[in-house]
Please model this.
Amino acid sequence: MQIIQLLEQNTLFFLTSIALLGLLVGSFLNVVIYRLPVMMQRSWRYECQVFLEPDSDVDTPKEAFNLSQPRSRCPSCQHIISAKENIPVLSYLFLKGRCKHCKASISIRYPIIEVVTASLSVATAFHFGINVQTIYALVFVWVLICLSLIDFDTQLLPDNITLPLLWLGLFASLFNVFVSPTDAIIGALAGYLSLWSVYWLFKILTGKEGMGHGDFKLLAAIGAFLGWQILPLVIMLSAFIGAVLGILLIVFKRHNKNIAIPFGPYLSFAAIIALFYGPKINGWYLAFSGL
Model:
């Protein structure tokens, strides 16, 4: 209780603490974004080999590979990164974006993800204040950042992230954190079925798959967190962002229009906007339309 009172009395200390937490979470997200798809691919390969060749000796990796093992290494020289070299943002600046051992370039994407995570964490805490909503909103935002980048890299939205997010949204509704249980359940159903219907309509008309099933589950999770009332805004905003960026890619980068573009980042970006301003935007729209 004393900690809560201290945070309430000192807004700067509260936001600074959230920023530091965001940097640490961003560093962890970098690990998840890279390793989880690799873990999934290894698991699929193993399961396929067991299914297709049940009587043969299944090759198992000699070294454990999960979110904690092995320790992070330089991809160029395999130098094991020490704790001092793994401090969010500061290590990158101190090392001037290069490996300490071989001087190979380190992608600037890592500190960018850490800074973006910290910035959105501070924005979330500032918006909701010191209450239980902030805790759930922070987790929501962190997970959306992670899913966006995994989808961008691999066009995968892992079930072991989207489904827990869905259940967390439903659990939060039991305490009316953002919406009531009724709104959350309808939001989850409507979120899944809306994109599921679009998927099948597009497939029947064109014979092609327009989106992955992970998009259905992600929108269901968004609906569980924010309620069914916010779904039209999320769908329209994500579709608009996706259409604009898709056109820009085709025009300026000669992007093949037949190449799939991940939809998860657009859904996530729209969901974060809806988290902060969804009720206000809906209110403005209803007032403007006279409804």
In short: The chain has ten helices and no strands.
